[in-house]
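Quick question: what would this complex look like in 3D?
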Amino acid sequence: MSENIQFKVRPGGKIHGRIRVPGDKSVSHRSIMLGAIADGTTHITGFLEGEDSLATLKAFQAMGVAIEGPDNGRVTVHGVGLKGLKAPTHPLDMGNSGTAMRLMAGILAGQDFECELVGDASLSKRPMKRVTDPLAEMGAEIETEAGGTPPLKIKRGGPLKPIDYVLPMASAQVKSCVLLAGLYAEGQTAVEEPAPTRDHTERMLRGFGYDVVSEKLDDMRTRVSLTGGQSLAASDIDVPSDISSAAFFMVAAAIAEEADLMIEHVGINPTRTGVLDILKLMGADITLENEATVGGEPVADIRIRSSKLKGIDIPPHLVPLAIDEFPVLFVAASAAEGRTVLTGAEELRVKESDRIQVMADALNALGIQATPTEDGMIIEGGQQAPQSAPILSHHDHRISMAATVAGLRAASDVIVDDCANVNTSFPTFIELINQVGMHVVAEEA
Ligand code: S3P
């Protein structure tokens, strides 16, 4: 990812057609991880061939797991069992991916070899104490940089002690890390989450025949528990299309004129559909068709047509359910009539970039009045300025793509700088965004 790719966006476009976006990133990571530590062969279809999930795939190959593919979304993982991983001969490079680093830390804490996890400039600034703290409680010894940031040096791992852990923040990555470490603990490990977060790890573990108990404690809190030491039975996985990637197209269709877009086979796991609820509250015209379940995950075709959006106060309980979609939801708010207020979203400050500050700067560059707050943003929907300053992605794929969609309603061409990062989650973005009717050129700057 060394070259600087710029996106040049010509305003306007009608947004129509029928598309399929790539496989879900969260599910793709987990399919390799669980496939690798299962007994038997796992066949994956719809795997996301993005840099993030490929980093996970390569890391397991480096630990002696035979993996074929990806070939057109097909991957075959020859599982080595819970105890079959081998010490890698070099540090494992997780690239830009927080999910890869945090979930792998859980699995690696259970191994009896030392290893090191490294990442790119963005990942090297992200907080890892949130996973090293519970892993240390379980008995693992992990070194980080002074500020609790990567690299992670796992000095001593399993067998681990089980814990009962109350998550300090609503994070599926931390929940999953502790549960995966729990596979290597002697006894019952439990995690209590303060609000619902994506539950792909729990669903996939059950799909691999592992007993996982989820108990609702009240409207918000859930306790998830499992007992270490059982085995995982290989299972075939059909990865649904990523609702987080579909979100760019949903917002594009919602804010364009005369739009009518169908996005096929999108994962609509209820822990991921906050974006649908928020857009509907804003007045978007969204319908679901062909609802089905594939490999334990619900999917549907999503149809979106143009609508007149209005500003809203985003209900805080929807925040963790739409956590990755805020960059593009801010774009929807910019095109809406009236004010949109987001609160309770301080986690956005520690994503691939500080998404509150970076998106406020991007919208300001487009002439939109957007005011960052400690835990959210206030956006006055309205006209974009006749001229815009170039937008910087700050190593963040979702900023690159959200800013591109914002160009749809701009008054003049929009330049988005540093966009090679789109390959981490959505390598076919440019092709598809042009296919549906936007005018975007990717050029080396
Ligand atoms: C993810 C969980 C979320 C999300 C990330 C993927 C996962 O992170 O933002 O893109 O696959 O578990 P947090 O757990 O930090 O909220």
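Answer marked as accepted. The pocket of shikimate-3-phosphate is lined by residues 26, 99, 171-173, 176, 198, 323-324, 347 (CB under 6 Å).
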